[in-house]
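Structure ticket #2291
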Amino acid sequence: MGRYIHTNCTYVENHVEGTYTFTGPCKGTGKPYSVTIPGHELWDLNQGELLQVALKSLNADDREFVASGYSPEGWAKLWA
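Resolution: structure written out below.
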């Protein structure tokens, strides 16, 4: 699948809210960064839906971390 969250993060499932919180090191800073994804959106992503279509509730910064492993701070450092 090639998504950063699937290979470099751990996750915690919140059964009450139906969400998954993925946490892993930012590739730019090494600092932990977390993204919470609703279960139905994660399902769509894992079924092959495009990231920007599947993860409707996430902002662009969080979608970037899901895909590449760069947090907003890491992205800024990369392009500084």
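Closing remark: The mean pLDDT is 94.
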